[in-house]
Amino acid sequence: EKWAATRAKHPPTSLALHHFDAKYSVQLGRLWPSVRVALLSERKYGALLNNFSSDAVLANLQAQGCRDFISDSDAEAQSCPEPESEVGADKQEESSDGAMKKSDVDDQQRPPFLLSRNINCAVFPRGDITRFKPARPDMQGLLGYYLMDAASVLPCLALDVQEGHRVLDLCAAPGGKSLALLQTQAVRFLCVNDSSVSRTQRLRKVLRRYVPKEFLTDENIRITSFDGTKWGEIERNTFDRVLVDVPCTTDRHSLTEDDNNIFSKSRTGERRMLPKLQVELLLAGIEAACPGGEIMYSTCTLSQIQNMGVVEQAIHQAQQNHGIHLEVVDLQLVTNMFRKTFHFAPDLHLGVMVVPHLAANFGPIYMCKLKRMT
Amino acid sequence: SVQSAQHSRELHPLSGKAATELSLHSLRDMGFTDIQAQQIWESVSAIRGSSAAKQAMSTLTVLFGLGLNPSSVLKLLQKCPEVYTIKDSQLQKRIGNLRKVGLVEGSLQRVVAHYPQILTVPVKTVKNVALFLREKCLFTSQQVTDILRDCPAIVHEDLAQVEYKFQYVYFRMGVKQTEMVKARLFRITLDEVRCRHCFLERRGLYQTPDKKGQTAIINPKLESIFKADQDTFLTEVAKASIEEYDVFQRLLAKEWQEEEQLYGNIEAE
Ligand SMILES: C[S@@+](CC[C@H](N)C(=O)[O-])C[C@H]1O[C@@H](n2cnc3c(N)ncnc32)[C@H](O)[C@@H]1O
Questions:
Q1: In Å, how far are A171, A224, B15, B155 from B94, measured between CA atoms?
Q2: Which of A27, A241, B25, B175 is the most exposed place for a label (fewest CB within 10 A)?
Q3: A296 φ, ψ to 5°?
Q4: Domain boundary assignment for chain B
Q5: Is B54 helix (H, G, I), strand (E, B) or coil?
Q6: Of B26 and A333, which is predicted with more confidence?
Q7: Ligand 1 mean position to A172 CA, how many Å?
């Protein structure tokens, strides 16, 4: 009697679980049970430090046992991007199918890959389940940190924003990643967009709580609510850096909240259309970038179709329909630098993915960086 | 109990001399070695109350009457010195009652040696537990006996907790009484039961059967989940690391605590 089912027969959360079991047990294999239990248990946050706040926030968080995982990263990994053993293995494999030459050429031409500066994010150590307290305002009323999935900071870091860049955040609300990009204080002009008007309102509020007014002038920042897929028609070949953080099946949310769940029966059509929308958004972002500019595609799903599948299609269509040639930027450095903090999916042939694990319950976050060659 | 008294006399000729005063000499006569006799002597002296010394001799006589040998008697008393203070008539009644709930020779001795605390429990309590298991949890008499044999500590548990544990496994895990007995369910704590089950469930390795008793995956046997120690459970059933389970236990404790607070608040409103 005590345990009789009182829930609806097929709530969206269990539909989502069912769907993931079918898809991810194949995709992730032996890793899936471990990812599954993490997804169904309390997640961990990171505290994105607000450099605009005048309080000694990091020192305070450190006193509570946190560390800034970015400055505390594996410095050695930075100087030698790939562990020798792996390079050796790669070459052996590739020489067998005669592709060794190509890999050598790639090594020489690989652009110097840098991380965006000044982004700091505090996390509690591995296995520590302490929660962050809500951030407090400083004397000017600016909050000291923004709580978000620590792995969400990675796409912003790897976007490599440099002094004087013009940056577009195509799907920006509620604004965590925009805020991370602004921390670099290198952006000359930031364009934040989200098609949802109400979510754009939230984003405005976030920016106001974290960034001083003088940085939020019309010359610095533009906040819009356009349909991102149309961006290519509005503003082409313009931005040095573009972040395309698309709507997706938001795996963690879909497993825990029945409200506003993409797996609810009424949203089946919308869900099926996601990969198409994602390709369109990424293509629009590619068009918005200038030649030589870089585009970061990111999601918070484990789905192969929504991740690598979308990137492959967009690369193909950019070439076919727009004559834009793209190159994939190797993000191996990111996995090497931050393996103390995150669990990365092994053997991804395109992009990088943080997979949840109980001891480091961040993610899922997928990211793939493209460089416009033409 | 007349029967059992006879029974014990047959088993051990010493029963007749029950009134003998406790002394090192008499202890040696009973078959203890010098060192063992010394140990008994000291442990009895450590118990306060004037009657302990007199009581001790009859206690020992009853225990020998069960057919236990000197070294197991010593071990038993070291585990639970409280047994010295129980009147021999009480002790006889309690042992008789354990026979009545089905503990046959062999099992009875093992339970008493392994969990002497069972002798400190009134007859009525043991009867209640047995009745409870039969009527509230619908175990058969044989199953009740098996439970008392394998998990004697159940006599010291809060029956509301026992009921909760039973219902959890019956309804939430969809497992019947026979399997519960085999798994020695009542040996592990409710928290551990819920924790192991939830861990498996969230890893996708356990499903509650539907009304027809069907599941989409094959559940591991209850025995393999609960009878094994934690390491074996992790490597063989959950296929997870100790680190993961350690974090999970802490997370789950937090979840439960917050659920309780939530219900507490709803009730308070
Ligand atoms: C994953 S969320 C972005 C999270 C955000 N980047 C952050 O870090 O806080 C995806 C966003 O895409 C927006 N979106 C959905 N369709 C869109 C479209 N066609 N154009 C622009 N934004 C869209 C949604 O409103 C949602 O806010």
A1: 75, 82, 17, 13
A2: B25
A3: -110, 120
A4: 2-91, 159-268
A5: helix
A6: A333
A7: 5
DSSP A141: S
- DSSP-assigned letters across all residues of A144-192: SEEEE-GGGHHHHHHT---TTEEEEESS-TT-HHHHHHHHT--EEEEEE
- Residue A193: closest CA among A152, A167, A228, A161: A228
Quick one: pLDDT band at residue B40, thresholds 50, 70, 90? confident
pLDDT at position A107, please?
Answer: 47
Sign of CA dihedral A306, A70, A238, A109: negative
pLDDT digit string, tens, across residues B89-110: 999 999 999 999 999 999 999 9
Residue pair A209/A142 in contact (Cβ under 8 Å)? The answer is yes
Level-2 CATH architecture, domain B159-268: Alpha Horseshoe (1.25)
Q: Looking at chain B, which residue has its C-alpha nearest residue A30? A: B239
What count of other Cβ atoms lies within 10 Å of the Cβ of residue B5?
14
Question: Ligand 1 in contact with A195 (CB < 6 A)?
Answer: yes
Look at the block and give the residue holding tokens 């939530």. Answer: B262
**Contact call for residues A55 and A144 (beta carbons, < 8 A):** yes
Find out whether A136 and A56 touch, Cβ atoms under 8 Å.
no
Is A253 close to ligand 1, i.e. is its CB under 6 Å away? no
CB distance B101 to B121 below 8 Å: no
In this prediction the ipTM stands at 0.88
Nearest C-alpha neighbor of A297 from the set A159, A181, A106 = A159
For the CA of A170, the closest atom of ligand 1 is: 21
Residue bearing tokens 């159940």 = B154
Which residue in this structure is represented by tokens 């060192």?
A: B35
Rounded CA separation A221/A48 (Å): 20
Q: How confident is the model at residue A6 (pLDDT cuts 50, 70, 90)?
A: low
Please name the residues between 186 and 225 in chain A that touch chain B, using a CB distance below 8 Å: none
Q: Enumerate domains of chain A plus CATH numbers.
A: 12-42+150-372 (3.40.50.150)
The string of pLDDT tens digits covering residues A298-317 is 999 999 999 999 999 999 99
